[in-house]
Amino acid sequence: xxxxxxxxxxxxxxxxxxxxxxxxxxxxxxxxxxxxxxxxxxxxxxxxxxxxxxxxxxxxxxxxxxxxxxxxxxxxxxxxxxxxxxxxxxxxxxxxxxxxxxxxxxxxxxxxxxxxxxxxxxxxxxxxxxxxxxxxxxxxxxxxxxxxxxxxxxxxxxxxxxxxxxxxxxxxxxxxxxxxxxxxxxxxxxxxxxxxxxxxxxxxxxxxxxxxxxxxxxxxxxxxxxxxxxxxxxxxxxxxxxxxxxxxxxxxxxxxxxxxxxxxxxxxxxxxxxxxxxxxxxxxxxxxxxxxxxxxxxxxxxxxxxxxxxxxxxxxxxxxxxxxxxxxxxxxxxxxxxxxxxxxxxxxxxxxxxxxxxxx
Length: 360
Ligand code: NAD
Ligand code: ZN
Prior knowledge:
Layout: E1 11-14, H1 22-26, E2 36-41, H2 50-53, E3 63-67, H3 75-89, E4 94-99, H4 101-113, E5 125-126, E6 135-140, E7 154-156, E8 161-165, E9 173-176, H5 186-204, H6 211-230, H7 236-254, H8 260-272, H9 276-284, H10 292-304, H11 319-330, H12 333-340, H13 344-347, H14 350-359
Parallel strand pairs: 1-9, 2-3, 2-4, 4-6, 5-8, 6-9
Antiparallel strand pairs: 7-8
Helix pairs in contact: 3-4, 5-6, 5-7, 5-9, 6-7, 8-9, 8-11, 11-14
């Protein structure tokens, strides 16, 4: 038995308004003439985002780049940003990602690519990154993905959708300020929040479960339930609780694994570009056979929070398209093994998976 020795985020600041401490936090990492680069979710690019962007401590030659997260991050986009920064400045003091999981993943990837040769696609996999990146900070504006604590940054490349998983990938610093999530649209907040709920279920009901994962998973699940089951309207406490749920849910899967919803949703995401949070919800809606109690609770939360979960995504797909999704999904071996045990291949056959995709 080999135990995972996992690298965590070095520094965490938590609290309402902690974002205003950002300059004090990053100041010791400023190097003469090299800028700090702020990769900010494009949602904040207009007037409505000024309440946040006006507080970004950009000084001297620092650069604010609004990143387009309409699609989930691509290796080509990471390479483009890194190449532009290299040609403009040589290198940078640090990269600060402000946004949802997509903007944070972009920041991690760009920070790594500032010090590594070639394309980010060369590093999609496990422990392929050769050198530490530049200083990197994550500032979530949506809660749920756990990207703030994970050792990966999920990227779609020319041949695969896979993260740069490495000990160099976690942020050096995260700033958890729940006030930054306050204005997120109701639907988006639910989809990303459900990513956390699903992390908890897949971790707690998986065969890889251990007391480390359980401790974090149970707490995160309790917080998700407070927010989406017990509360009748969104308030400040919900922002606080969901931010900590995201953190704890991420810590839970760091030492276990996700399961069926993620494995199937990766297939959808790869073929149809369905985004992570909503994709997980679309799949979870049909997982009664695997997580019966949780699916019942999930449906209750959908109804209570008045959310529409899209249906009929796979209607009219070709044989070849189904095959692609099945291949991507079935390739996620650790996820299946966690969910169904060592003999998972006997349980999750291609035809069963096909029948599941047909329902989505
Ligand atoms: P997202 O980052 O893709 O953003 C979703 C939408 O919300 C975007 O349109 C964005 O502009 C907008 N948005 C962000 N903050 C907002 C705010 N405060 N108010 C209003 N709108 C806001 O969504 P997500 O669910 O946070 O992240 C999904 C991404 O995270 C995917 O790319 C997925 O692959 C990745 N992910 C990474 C990990 C990891 O461990 N690295 C884990 C899970 C998911
Ligand atoms: Zn997830």
